[in-house]
Amino acid sequence: MNPYVLDASVVIKWFVPEEFSDKARRWRTAGGLMHVPDFFFVEANNIVWKKVMRGDLARDEADAIAATLLDLPFSVHPAAPLLPAAYKLACETGRTVYDCLYLALAIELGGQMVTADRRLVNALASTPHAAHLCWVED
Questions:
Q1: Residue 84 CB: number of other CB atoms within 10 A?
Q2: pLDDT below 70 — which residues of the chain?
Q3: Residue 44: how many CB atoms within 10 A of its CB?
Q4: DSSP characters over the chain
Q5: What local confidence, expressed as pLDDT, does residue 6 receive?
Q6: pTM (2 decimals)?
Q7: CATH number of the domain that residue 11 is part of
Q8: Residue 83 maps to a domain
Q9: Has residue 89 been placed in a domain?
Q10: Second label for 84, Cα 20 to 30 Å away, from 36, 97, 105, 121?
Q11: pLDDT value of position 2
Q12: Phi and psi (nearest 5°) for 17?
């Protein structure tokens, strides 16, 4: 089975109705082990916080989501060892080190990064790294 690395843009859609939420939820029940870098929890909680600050989520809903994120059955990988590869990928692609952490983990595992970030997918579509990306709808 192909290892999948889920980025925060996909997982947040499990809890917050947004565009592609229905597609993202398929990944929650896809079976198999899902992977994340430990940075995922920082990024996902920051997204939840932003939604509270913008008035998109009530605080009690956000608190419940933040607590649930910690209990998801992911294989969690330390980000620090991935940083050299993520930094190199960021310099090569012009994408953020944050995004490239997920991509570096997918490459290391020989799998794919699942994302709902269309700009990232489009930016890397014509690169060798496209083989390690999976659009949330695929």
A1: 10
A2: 1
A3: 23
A4: ---EEE-HHHHGGGTS--TTHHHHHHHHTS-S-EEEETHHHHHHHHHHHHHHHTTSS-HHHHHHHHHHHTTS-EEEE-SGGGHHHHHHHHHHH---HHHHHHHHHHHHHTSEEEE--HHHHHHHTTSGGGGGEEETT-
A5: 97
A6: 0.94
A7: 3.40.50.1010
A8: yes
A9: yes
A10: 121
A11: 85
A12: -65, 115
